[in-house]
Amino acid sequence: MTALQQTEPRATIGVIGGSGLYAMEGLADVERVTLQTPFGAPSDAYVIGTIEGYRVAFLPRHGVGHRLSPSEVPSRANMYGFRMLGVRYLIAVSAVGSLREEYAPGHIVIPDQLYDRTKGHRPDTFFGGGLVAHVQFDRPFDAGLSDRLEQAARAAGATVHRGGTLVVMEGPQFSTLAESEENRRRGHHLIGMTALPEAKLAREAEIAYAMLAMVTDYDCWHPGHDAVTVEMVVQVLQANARLAQDVVRRVIPLIGDGFDSPAHHALATAIITDPAVIPAEKLAQVELLVGKYLRKEA
Ligand SMILES: CSC[C@H]1O[C@H](OP(=O)(O)O)[C@H](O)[C@@H]1O
Ligand SMILES: Nc1ncnc2[nH]cnc12
């Protein structure tokens, strides 16, 4: 299927899988949807299927086979594509390093803050080009969705930590010891490479976004650990693959038919440009996101 705007809602719940989570288990009535968006092609085809009676759209962030580095993940296309499918609740699964003794490998964290240490090269907004919008981002994760994720993770028997700041680095190299120690001094709890700009774009697409962070290693600061390796990360992910799948399966019915989220109204107070001066091509590009607000103004 190729379409640039939403035609029919196909799923209101989405899951974006990170390292080690390239497919979702237990989906019934599966369809694969290949989308082209005004912001390019997403990481892979979306796989849509039914879990516990609800349609869910899954996308592997790095593509099947893990072809895309963190800097190459096309987050604008990925988030726009989810919105084209009708997704309004997105669970982001991510492998993260721990910067705190108490957040041990194998644990699950539902972070509540982000700190941007990417290098500014990743396209991180749908706006600009004649249409300026400034969404709020003081609370990057949706509280209601995080509550449900926490409940699901506890029900699955995981060791769960609620809250924590995830610092997002550019990568793909892991941190130096000096960087890891500085991240700890700054009070950060976790480190990863992909939550930004993904979370910002979900907000601009008015999708409620929460993260299931799987702790895979202690980064390099921990005296009891050698430098982090991909082998180490993959080993912990493999040992916890079933747990991640179980948490995701359990959170779907908790989201159910949905709930109101501030994220769903993120653009209501964000657009500053006079509709009369927005270029037609720009409007066409983001009609799916802003159409309802601009039509109201007209
Ligand atoms: C394989 S270790 C580093 C890699 O894993 C994480 O990916 P994701 O967030 O998609 O699970 C991390 O951000 C790096 O991209
Ligand atoms: N130590 C680490 N640093 C950055 N991203 C990670 N993803 C998993 N472990 C990580």
UniProtKB/TrEMBL annotation:
Binding residue positions for phosphate: S19, R61, H62, S94, A95, T194
Pathway: Amino-acid biosynthesis; L-methionine biosynthesis via salvage pathway; S-methyl-5-thio-alpha-D-ribose 1-phosphate from S-methyl-5'-thioadenosine (phosphorylase route): step 1/1
GO molecular function: S-methyl-5-thioadenosine phosphorylase activity
Residue ranges occupied by any Nucleoside phosphorylase domain in the UniProt entry: 12-252
Gene Ontology cellular component annotations, sorted alphabetically: cytosol
SUPFAM superfamilies, per the entry: Purine and uridine phosphorylases (SSF53167)
Domain of life, per lineage: Bacteria
InterPro entries: MTAP, Nucleoside_phosphorylase_d, Nucleoside_phosphorylase_sf
Keyword Transferase: yes
Top EC class for this record: transferase
Role played: Catalyzes the reversible phosphorylation of S-methyl-5'-thioadenosine (MTA) to adenine and 5-methylthioribose-1-phosphate. Involved in the breakdown of MTA, a major by-product of polyamine biosynthesis. Responsible for the first step in the methionine salvage pathway after MTA has been generated from S-adenosylmethionine. Has broad substrate specificity with 6-aminopurine nucleosides as preferred substrates.
Assembly and interaction partners: Homohexamer. Dimer of a homotrimer.
Protein name, per record: S-methyl-5'-thioadenosine phosphorylase
